[in-house]
Amino acid sequence: MRMSSLFLRTLRDDPADAEVTSHKLMVRAGLIRRVASGIYSWLPLGNRVLRNVAQIVREEMDDAGAQEVTLPIAQPLDLWKRSGRDEAYGQMMFRVKDRKDNWYAMAPTAEEVVTTLVAGEYSSHRDLPVNLYQINWKYRDELRPRFGLLRCREFLMKDAYSFDADLAGLQASYDAMFDAYGKVFTRCGLTFRAVKAQSGEIGGDTSQEFMAVAAIGEDAFVWCEQCDYAANTEAATRHPHPETAVDDPEPRESIHTPDMPGIDVVAEHLSATADLLMKAIAFDVDGQLALALVPGDREVNEYAVIAAFPGRSVRLYTDADFDAHPEIPKGYIGPDFEGAAHVLADSSIKAPHGWITGANRVDHHDRNVVLGRDFTPTAWGEIVVVAPGDQCPNCSSALRIDRGIEVGHVFQLGDKYSRAMGAVYTDEHGANHPMVMGCYGIGVSRILSAVIEEHHDDGGIVWPAAIAPYQVHLVVIPGRGDNAADVLAAAEQLYADLRAAGVDVLFDDREVSPGIKFADADLLGMPVQVTVGAKGYAQGVVERKIRATGERDELALDTALDALIAAQRTLSR
RNA sequence: CGGGAUGUGGCGCAGUUUGGUUAGCGCGCAGCGUUCGGGACGCUGAGGCCCCGGGUUCAAAUCCCGGCAUCCCGACCA
Questions:
Q1: What pTM was estimated for this model as a whole?
Q2: Which of A36, A62, A344, A435 has most Cβ atoms within 10 angstroms of its Cβ?
Q3: How many CB atoms lie within 10 A of CB A315?
Q4: How far is the CA of A12 from the C1' of B14 (A)?
Q5: Residue closest to A334 by CA, chosen among A364, A306, A308
Q6: Rounded distance between C-alpha atoms, residue A255 and residue A317, angstroms
Q7: Are A467 and A52 in contact (CB under 8 A)?
Q8: Are A111 and A439 in contact (CB under 8 A)?
């Protein structure tokens, strides 16, 4: 491609509406332009990268045995009513109405459509398994679109759906997708971690997120430096505290603590630290009061509490709940509060010291509240939000917390959709069963943001070769000397030869100053820059610069073509 | 949906507080000339519903009211 005719205008200044580096660079490098909040046009360079990423995804999906389909973006809303997700998605879905007043959802995802499709075609155990995927635009009317391509309302997503006869089959399908995802993100040049995600209310489901490590990431995740443990903050847990005993416990003592809102104030008043206090957080479990006990310096992981009561309805007490139960002394609940049906304690409550706790009456705390003597939990668990330095549940090493961009998510769905949409099969004995499903998403357009966040420098984007819009950025600097025409001709010849050899090459044949050409070459970020200039030409060489490292070398003019082609072969391997 | 900010040629901004000739600067764009290996320079020029609607006033980019849009901080997700 010749830059003289490429539809591109690079910008010197950062766009005013961009906050993060990847967004600024994508706009400056002419990859995308905003049309509305969270909705972008893709210009030629951006489109090529998008296509390259999609192609990698396609190859790995095909390789893993999935089959590509294309499902509709406009989906009858009736389908969504059947699964109950019309309500669940609510305002998140764009809805459109046709001339006959029928409503359609603009696909935020495609479980309903694909399950209906499979239900209509397949009905025997002999048909299974099958895994269908598509790479298509998705629409979600996000509360707050953000950070350019990171949180869009229109985005390109790869979504795959597996259908198996049983859980063992699902596990195999899931594992195949999991492996494929690792290959995709590795090929795209991302540093990532597969992170255990919270399974949610539906027991038995497992789910993992692929997080591209990035400071601007919207999600925090916990990971271990020593082993491969990694989990998002909701799902993360830590090594249990060992059993200990309190030596020579002092007698329990009640203290008047009026007008002391918050743990820190009470701690200061008692010359203690927050970790010596105990919080008793009230939950409603099937209409009964449950207490979650954690040290004063820790937060309760609500998801962990919910998981501790499988099959029950669990929610945090609200102000309305406290209003309805004036006998519960909000802020002064102790671990031995009589009205509690369940007392779930974090293992850290086993620490070898007495606790400062609520005294079960307003404006009072108790000191020297001792486990076993003064209170006995009905259940133990790991229910605090993990903090940096906590011990890894697998190997006890220190855990770390980093931020990441969720670029992929694999999920074992079970039979939720196959039941709702009637995707059943007949087994070898003539009995009918719902198919067992998994679903697997990759944020294709989001990958571009993640890659640029990881691969850029002061000069601009540094594309990994696998997804770069072009492999070689050929710059000609003809100068004004006698050999200007020859230099130009040599560059033209090299351009033609590279193209003939199948190398994707962007040729800066514009009549602009060298400074502009070099600055644009760095901004656009092709992996290899080749300069055919008057000075080098006079000595029979062209210059090569590796964008990522800044490394430069010279190639003899007459063998440059072969050298570049050879280098491309190495890169593409 | 709460909280904060912004809206002025394609892009980045000044001007608004204190209303007053023809709305200005940089980049970009067009023409001419001088330059030519890391975002050169001079001259000339094109390009503006000053977000929209209403109001106040002799007079509004500027003041008042009402909208809309965009961005940032919080609750959802690939």
A1: 0.90
A2: A435
A3: 12
A4: 19
A5: A364
A6: 26
A7: yes
A8: yes
Residues 6+ apart with CB under 8 A from A523: A10, A25, A28, A29, A459, A460, A461
Measured in angstroms, what separates residue A36's CA from nucleotide B57's C1'?
37
- The bridge status of strand A436-443 relative to strand A456-457 is unpaired
The answer to whether the beta carbons of residues A142 and A38 sit under 8 Å apart is: yes
CA distance A573 to A50: 21
A16 touches strand B (CB under 7 A): yes
Distance separating alpha carbons of residues A19 and A86, to the nearest angstrom: 34
Average pLDDT over all residues of chain A: 93
Nearest nucleotide to A520, CA against C1' atoms: B39
Work out the percent of chain A whose per-residue pLDDT is above 90: 76
Tell me the residue ranges of DSSP E strands in A225-340: 230-232, 253-256, 278-285, 288-295, 314-316
What are the backbone dihedrals phi and psi of residue A304, each rounded to the nearest 5 degrees, phi first? -70, -35
Three-state SS string over A457-518 comes to: ECCEECCCCCCCCCCEEEEEECCCCCCHHHHHHHHHHHHHHHHHCCCCEEEECCCCCHHHHH
Asked whether residue A534's C-beta has any atom of DNA/RNA strand B within 7 A, the reply is: yes
pLDDT digits (tens, 9 = 90+) for A137-150: 999 998 888 888 89
How many Å does it take to go from CA A36 to C1' B69? Answer: 9
DSSP code of A92? G
* Segments of chain A with pLDDT less than 70: 199-205, 573
- pLDDT tens per residue, range A499-549: 999 999 999 999 999 999 999 999 999 999 999 999 999 999 999 999 999
The token duo for A199 is 């399974």
Separation between Cα atoms, residue A7 and residue A521, nearest integer Å:
15
**Is the separation of the CB atoms in A189 and A447 below 8 Å?**
no
Cα(A89)–Cα(A84) distance, integer angstroms: 9
Instruction: Spell out which residues of A between 540 and 559 contact strand B, using CB within 7 Å.
Output: 543, 545
Return the closest-CA partner of residue A278 out of A265, A289, A290, A267: A267
Q: Residue A181's pLDDT is what?
A: 98
CA–centroid distance for A8 within its chain: 30
- The pLDDT score that the predictor gives to residue A429 is 97
Count Cβ neighbours within 10 Å for each residue of A320-345 and write b for 16 or more, e otherwise.
ebeeeeeebbebbbbbbbeebebbbb
Give the residue among A111, A109, A114 at the shortest CA–CA distance from A137: A109
| CA distances, A278 to each of A267, A357, A359, A401, A491 (Å) | 11, 5, 11, 24, 74
Of all nucleotides, the one whose C1′ comes closest to residue A521's CA is B38
Residues in chain A: 573
